[in-house]
Design brief:
Length: about 200
């Protein structure tokens, strides 16, 4: 079963998929090159050029693979159970806005977020990676959301699941949303998904 971005297990599934895609790209390059070599008995042919040109998308795929392999899912054990309980305790209207395993990326770096809750004014997130500069992550993600046409987004990132859970309980009111609020919330969710690996 394929996981969508924002669902638990997405990152592990993407790692497997990217490994397979990378192997296929390089196997295709090798097959084209060998086909040219075996038919003309020299590497000076058009199939060699096709193989070299095929190395460009394979290189891009390799970079994407490395990006995924660098990231680890840190939300495990009791912290994962706490996050799952938190999501399940949310009102139905708020559950669709609780996301897992997002890695928003900027030109400078990536910021792994184990859990993200999208609310009316912005996002609350949990980042368990030790050594992450949370204020710079908040600024970078806020800037990315503003670039995606989300005006004045609030971005709060917490270093523990417990602190994140407290904020989510405070923000999840379960009240009916107006169409305007729902569109803004959907826009924020779509933006954070689009800027994530």
């Amino acid at each position: 079963m394929t996981r969508k971005k924002g669902q638990p297990g997405y990152l592990a599934g993407q790692k497997k998929l990217q490994v397979i895609k990378t192997i296929v790209y390089y196997a295709a390059i090798l097959a084209v090159f060998l086909a040219g070599l075996l038919t003309t008995h020299t590497r000076l042919n058009l199939l060699t050029i096709a193989a070299v040109v095929g190395a460009l998308p394979a290189g891009k795929q390799t970079v994407l693979l490395v990006m995924y392999l660098r990231e680890k899912v840190l939300l495990m054990g009791t912290e994962r159970e706490l996050a799952d309980k938190l999501r399940n305790s949310l009102p139905d209207t708020d559950r669709d806005y609780f996301l897992y395993e997002l890695i928003p990326s900027t030109k400078e770096r990536t910021y792994p977020l184990e859990c993200v809750f999208v609310y009316r004014q912005g996002i609350a997130a949990c980042c368990l990676k030790p050594g992450t500069d949370l204020p710079s992550a908040q600024k970078a993600i806020r800037r990315k959301l503003e670039e995606q046409s989300v005006p004045n987004p609030s971005v709060q990132i917490f270093p523990t699941v417990a602190a994140f859970a407290g904020k989510v309980k405070e923000l999840a009111d379960g009240e009916a949303m107006t169409d305007k609020e729902r569109r803004r919330r959907d826009s924020i969710r779509n933006c954070i998904l689009s800027v994530s690996l």
